[in-house]
Design a protein that fits this description.
heterodimer; A: 280 residues; mainly alpha; MetI-like fold; two-stranded antiparallel ribbon; B: 335 residues; 3 domains; 66% helix; globular
Chain lengths: 280, 335
């Protein structure tokens, strides 16, 4: 900012655009919230002012908890996300360490392979993958997702962490090894503690990705009790042409809160995960 | 540092005199007061795990097994499936390239190809322009900067289908809030049918996809902007350059590497998108918003024709491969 910047210039170059973006980016969330606490009388009345609620009600929220399987979906999603994140983090740490520190035949092919799988979209493989999951008798169980989500998560965990390990000086490990630590001990006791910020970034990013995943969950799960939040809300709360907009928006909001919370506690880590995973 | 006599002695004792394979166990290691690594329960340092390549293979094994089972194998199975007439619940028979021939002759598929390229092109352009603008705005210093920056990322982090549901409600045929505003302002005589008209439906799905992707561009580009040295701008100021000149000659060229990576990533994700269209239109009205993924889903899961569905998915492959090859080439060149 230069000293001579006038208020008018700052208004047009900064305040107005910022206001525009705030409204554009955040209005849908306000809309979810206001819809979820509107009584049906106001919700389905074209004449009432849509931006405000005059008689707020919790009926849609109560309906969501009492009449739907929402809590069940939330527990499913939590279990699946935590387990698949744990599997991916452990495999990612191991593979990332090997890629960044150890010489082995095929290392560059493995690295390129990881990078390519990172760019494979889920929609390319979901049909044959459903066959594979079916052949392993995993359809309609949480394990269908716990074992397939790592295919999305491991590549970027590996990529992100091998980059992170490279920033830790080799000398630290060498000292430990001279003092008698084995390779594995040096990795576990020297490198891992130092790589904690990177591991946290990868873990947070992996957790939100599995919480948000949709198409595998849609295709591999069919019983209402097995579903995750995104699939449950979209497929079970919309029956035919009847939309319960109040509870739909309550469910959408509630399903977003865990990732929003985790994200708000770890913003910096999340952004590192995001930009790190992209830049490689 | 003192020579680690103790540990050397230990090792001398532990080298198996009878030539037995030396068992390796991972004991806990403690740092003693002298700063010496003392190993307990550790039998030897010369086990299999000390051999670099063996340890490396063991470490990459879990990742390799999962990716082989659930990416490489399905990929090959997908190619096989696409050459069969497999239907849900029945054995498939090899039919060669019949599925691909049928698909290429179908009007719906040609429409889908066109839709996908329009969707990817327009949405990516919107994300680029608005994402860059948002990054430039957020790069200012202002009150509550951290809070505002954090909140701008919300559309990107929350589950896409859930935020798209809010948009579905905002595009509702009768109760659309956009229509309410347009009617009040007197801009339209009667409410627009956002998702019921082929062109408007395409506009709607593109808008929602762009809305979701703008924060990703903005945050990545903001990270890029912050690496540009202020010296460059000061030098330009001395030379009397205007804001526009500085933007074209400093900001854009310096952002180029980040910009390219973000663009490539976004193009892949948008090209293979499923969620926005699935929630808003399911490909309708009259197939005007079908993308590869939604058409494949409809054919394979709604109609049960797995072979044909797998073939439709595979049509994405050549385009994705081109992008990946380009990116690998670019990374090599940068090094």
């Amino acid at each position: 900012m230069s000293v001579g910047e006038t208020f008018t210039k700052r208004l047009f170059c900064f305040y107005l655009p910022l206001f525009f973006f705030m409204v554009l980016m955040l209005f849908p969330f306000y809309w979810m919230f206001i819809t979820s606490i509107k009584p049906n009388k106001e919700l389905y009345n074209v004449r009432s002012l849509p931006f405000w609620v005059f008689h707020p009600t919790l009926e849609h929220w109560i309906y969501l908890f009492k009449k739907t399987l929402f809590t069940r979906w939330a527990l499913n999603t939590l279990f699946i996300s935590i387990t698949s994140t744990a599997i991916s983090l452990v495999s990612g740490i191991m593979a990332g360490y090997a890629l960044s520190r150890l010489n082995f035949k095929g290392a560059s092919i493995f690295g390129t392979g990881i990078f390519i799988t990172y760019l494979v979209p889920q929609t390319l493989l979901f049909i044959p993958l459903a066959e594979v999951v079916h052949n392993f008798h995993l359809l309609d169980t949480p394990w269908a997702l716990i074992l397939t989500y790592p295919t999305i998560l491991i590549p970027f965990c590996t990529w992100l962490l091998s980059g992170y390990f490279k920033t830790i000086p080799k000398e630290l490990e060498e000292c430990a090894r001279i003092d008698g630590a084995t390779r594995l001990q040096a990795m576990i006791w020297i490198i891992l503690p130092l790589a904690m910020p990177g591991i946290l970034s990868a873990g947070i990013f992996a957790f939100t990705l599995s919480w948000n995943e949709f198409i595998y969950a849609l295709v591999f799960l069919s019983s209402p009790t097995e579903k995750t939040i995104p699939v449950g809300v979209v497929s079970e709360l919309i029956k035919g042409d009847v939309f319960f907009w109040g509870s739909l928006m309550a469910g959408a909001l509630l399903g977003s809160i865990p990732v929003a919370l985790i994200y708000s506690f770890f913003v910096e880590h999340y952004v590192t995960g995001l930009t790190g995973a992209v830049k490689g | 540092m003192k020579p680690n006599v103790k540990s050397l002695e230990n090792r001398a004792e532990q080298v198996a005199p009878y030539g037995d394979p030396v068992p390796v166990s991972i004991g806990h290691v403690e740092r003693t007061a002298e700063g010496v690594w003392e190993k307990r329960h550790v039998k030897a340092k010369s086990g299999y795990l000390e051999q670099e390549h063996i340890l490396a293979y063991l470490l990459v094994a879990p990742a390799l097994i999962i990716l082989t089972l659930f990416i490489a194998y399905p990929f090959i199975l997908g190619i096989w499936l696409s050459m069969t007439d497999k239907v849900v619940g029945q054995e498939g028979h090899f039919v060669g390239l019949q599925n691909f021939r049928n698909i290429l002759q179908s009007q719906i598929f040609l429409q889908t190809v066109k839709n996908t390229f329009v969707y990817t092109g327009v949405a990516t352009l919107l994300k680029l322009v608005f994402g860059l603008a948002l990054a430039l705005v957020l790069n200012h210093h202002f009150k509550f900067k951290r809070l505002v920056r954090a909140s701008m990322l919300l559309p990107w982090i929350i589950p896409t289908v859930l935020s798209t549901l809010a948009w579905l409600w905002m595009f509702d045929a009768t109760f659309s809030v956009f229509n309410w505003v347009l009617l009040k302002l007197g801009l339209v005589q009667r409410g627009l049918i956002w998702l019921g008209d082929p062109q408007l439906a395409m506009v709607s799905v593109i808008l929602v996809n762009a809305w979701r992707g703008i924060p990703f561009f903005a945050i990545s580009l903001l990270a890029g902007l912050q690496t540009i040295s202020p010296d460059l701008y000061e030098a330009a100021d001395i030379d009397g350059a205007g804001s526009l000149a500085k933007f074209w000659n400093i900001t854009l060229p310096m952002l180029q590497p980040v910009l390219l990576v973000v663009l490539i990533f976004s193009v892949i994700v948008t090209f293979a998108d499923f969620q926005v269209v699935y929630v808003l239109t399911r490909g309708g009205p009259s197939n005007s918003t079908h993308l590869f993924a939604t058409l494949a889903y409809q054919v394979a899961l709604a109609s049960g024709r797995l072979g044909e569905g797998a073939a439709i998915s595979l049509f994405m492959f050549p385009f994705l491969l081109l992008i990946v090859i380009f990116q690998l080439w670019y990374i090599r060149r940068e090094r």
